[in-house]
Amino acid sequence: MDGVGRVGRPVQTPGLPHPLLNASTPKTGGALPQAGQITLDRTVNDIQGCDFVTDTRLVCVSDDASGTKFPEIRPLLQVDLPHKLDGRPITGAVTSLFALPQRSICTGTFEAEGIDYDVNSGTLRAEVVQPGVCQVSTSVYSYKQQ
What we know:
The protein is an all-beta fold. It is about 0% helix and about 45% strand.
């Protein structure tokens, strides 16, 4: 599931099933029905992507460096849903988990770039692009729930 946050407005993110993982999609492609629409209970900035970690929980990466919506800079956000997506609009409760690491030998602006959850290993990966001349390098941080 991917979504882009709009500054200063609640985010509405379409839930779209991934075609390669959806057995009902023809091998040659085809239309995928929208799985649902998620409205967040608070405004967020610069959402770069989200991934489901359970049927009712998403984790999202934000490139928000303003500190106006959450105390953390470039936070990893958790979105809890009251139930599984069922095709109808739903509201998710947003909380900030922590700030993504921003360590580099280079100076400048980092960019939180993406997120991926591997259901087989239970590993969540978040990507952060390095600043300045180091931006040819992306740091991948891996997390596992204990």
